[in-house]
Amino acid sequence: MELQRHAKWHPNRVHVAFLDGATPAGPLEDRKYTVTKSVRTGHWYVSVGSRYNEQQISGRYTRWMRDEIVGEWLSEHELRFHVHVSGGRVYGRPAMRYRKFLRDLPSALYAVRYADACLAQTMPILDDAEVTVEFHSDTDKWNQVQSFGRWRDYNRADLWKSVFRK
Asked: Which residues in 39-75 are b (16+ Cβ under 10 Å) and which e?
């Protein structure tokens, strides 16, 4: 998959929370991400912890839409994210949901990299890690794992510096 630079991506629209079991610098073991986006504001909400942030994804809207993105480090060589395309009670047809995730995932991954910039600095070996996304579906066509490049591909320090200078 060709990674596109998102000119409209704004780090000031990323809100980060570190939960029990995680600090900005680590640990990598059991590190999990819960990512949601506000449809109303376009802001991304990233929680980093030793568990997924159930409170963040338990609201009525999120449970109905099932548009959350969760991920975890499987090792220092792979960061795996999961999205729910079809099965159970979800809003939208699988093809529509799949396309929406494909459109939103790069921005979500930029947000996660931004949220965990300190970890990336502390452990530069992670830059070589493969980022994969598992699309969960009750239909074989949509039930798949795709590579989304390397962790280094989501480093947007060029944008972050301009935000921190203001």
From this structure: eeeeebbbbbbeebbeebbeeeeeeebbbbbbbbbee
Range of the domain at 127: 13-165
Tell me the CA distances in angstroms from 136 to 9, 36, 42, 132, 148, one per residue in order. 26, 17, 24, 13, 16
Partners of residue 73 on adjacent β-strands: 79
Distance CA 94, CA 96 (A): 5
Distance CA 21, CA 28 (A): 10
DSSP string, 19-32: -TT-BTTB--TT-E
Residue 4 lies in a domain: no
Q: Is 1 a member of any domain?
A: no
In a domain, 6, yes or no: no
Residues belonging to the chain: 166
- Reported as a single tens digit per residue, the pLDDT across 103-132 is 999 999 999 999 999 999 999 999 999 999
Domain count, the chain: 1
32-52: average pLDDT: 93
Q: List all residues 6 or more positions away from 127 whose beta carbon is below 8 Å from its beta carbon.
A: 120, 150, 151, 152, 155
**Model pTM?**
0.86
- Domain assignment present for residue 97? The answer is yes
Q: Which helix (H) or strand (E) holds 94?
A: helix 94-115
